[in-house]
Known about the structure:
Layout: H1 7-22, E1 28-31, E2 39-42, E3 48-51, E4 62-64, E5 74-79, E6 82-93, E7 96-102, H2 110-113, H3 124-144, E8 152-155, H4 161-172, H5 177-185, E9 188-191, E10 202-204, H6 205-212, H7 215-218, H8 223-228, E11 231-234, E12 237-241, H9 242-248, E13 252-255, H10 258-267, E14 284-285, H11 292-295, H12 298-307, H13 330-358, H14 363-371, E15 378-383, H15 399-406, E16 413-418, H16 426-440, E17 448-451, H17 456-465, E18 468-471, H18 483-488, E19 493-497, H19 500-505, E20 511-514, H20 526-546, H21 556-569, H22 575-591
Parallel strand pairs: 1-7, 8-9, 9-13, 13-14, 15-16, 15-18, 16-17, 18-19, 19-20
Antiparallel strand pairs: 2-3, 4-6, 5-6, 6-7, 10-12, 11-12
This protein binds pyridoxal-5'-phosphate.
Residues 6-7, 10, 384, 454-456, 459, 471, 481-483, 486 line the site of pyridoxal-5'-phosphate.
Amino acid sequence: MPIYSGGLGVLAGDHLKEASDLGLPLVGVGLMYAEGYFSQRISEDGWQVAVNNPLTFDDLPVQPVLDKNGELLKITVNFPDCSVNACIWELRVGRIPLYLLDTDLDENAPNDRKLTARLYWSDIDLRIAQEVLLGVGGVRALRALGYEPSVWHMNEGHAAFLTLERVRELVAGGTPFKKAAQKTRGNNVFTTHTPVPAGNDEFPLWLIDKNLSNYWGELGLTRDQFIDLARSHQAWGETFSMPILALRHSEGRNAVSELHGRVSRRMWQFLWPEVKEAEDVPITSITNGVHTGTWMARRLRVLYDKYLGEDWLDRLDEPETWDRMDAIPEAELWAVHMHLKRKLVFYVLNRARTRWMAGGFHPVQVIASGTMLDPYVLTVGFARRFATYKRATLVFDDLNRLLDIINRPNRPVQVIFSGKAHPDDEPGKQFIQEVYRAVKKAENGGRLVFLEDYDINLARYLVQGVDVWMNNPGRPTEASGTSGMKAALNGVLNFSVLSGWWREAYNGENGWAIGPDADLDAVVSDEADADSLYDTLKNEIIPLYYTDRGANDIPVKWVTRMKKSLRTITPLFGTRRMLKEYVERLYLPAMK
Ligand SMILES: *Cc1c(COP(=O)(O)O)cnc(C)c1O
């Protein structure tokens, strides 16, 4: 279902899969983006071209929800000058239903039909309407389907209007606003996923008037009282802030890593003026995880079945399960890893071939897409959204130094890049271009590679098949990061900045750090991080990979490190541990 842009969407899917595994009675609500998120092409000069492919619903694992007469079940959301209908698609994620709202109906005005066409419009006029549909319409959809949820979990601020719709239901039944807000707050849970402004939607007040002027009356509020629910003061004027709305109307609040918790408590401290110390701000943290069954290579699962006991997947989050790691012979683990690495290389070659045959591809682009990759060379992966804070170009800080490191005879290194920039993110697209220009240079010998159209499928090959997973965002803007967890549970070693999840997972022996474990307020320059990156790559990672190989050509010390990584990271950074924490620390208290 290509209706995600990056980590947040993938995490939402993993959350549902784990809820299915655990038998948790959870349902998901979202929007059915009829055009999905875009496919990416890269032009010869490295410019990202976005291709929008309308989804063919008949080919997707979704079904429309019908009412008892066999007609489409529809909900209605009223805007000041129109009402918009939406039908509901159901997708089964194991035992968990996911309901997706779709406004592409004949009776809606052409503009309203496009409301659910795409994920992440930059047009804030459309975005606010999408969020009203998701929040208000989402509650109405659940009611129409007959649900009486005991806990309401908002995954980021986009759904925050649901808090008001729940209040409106009570106000309509005669409860005054204040009391209704108090009653509903207790079982709302809100997760903030990023400190980056692009993830914290704020709308200018004229848009609130335009989209919600019919709504505050229904809540028994004046315009001013309504705006006050989420008023935010920016240099460019007053706004209505979705995260503020959610934080004020939820009793359960969390960030997604320990450090992100600290960042969030500081960032939102002003909402609790009576709280003196930032650390006392009532926002906790639950570190993200990934769905093990989705991301772990099948070959590795087979190996675990043999050595960890057949019930290891049921005891995934128990550290004792992983004590049995020692029983796995180095040679067998290495054989699985080499298999996955060859599988990645051949997959990349085939993609390059198909792309070359499709036309419009310059020969140098064929090389840039990985046709010179060698499965026996130390391989580093770097793949994620090209948001500038993720600093994809950091490794090119000193190109000559990088070329010197990757081209050494007998100890070469290859680096695979992949990732999309938001179509309207010009600096992000320039980062892709900068990477692509370096990748096209003959001097790198085909060892720097950029793969078009990063998505879940490509991600699975990469996180299972490279040797090292590199991540070097600026601190502390990466709230958690999850791709490194996917790599770790496949025996791929992380080489990352000590921010987000890696700061919690790194123990000095299960991967490598880029830069220092800096204090929140410390400023570390890009140059210093790049210097650390080159240094560790050259003096630690490369020697560990290429030296001390016995007669059977196995880098025993490397495999030892793989085992340390697998053993320490797999039990802790899965959705198993994560969802149990959500249940125990947020959902159950909210139910009470
Ligand atoms: C896991 C994943 C992400 C998130 O990666 P980060 O490096 O944590 O930002 C983004 N896109 C895809 C396709 C993924 O599978």
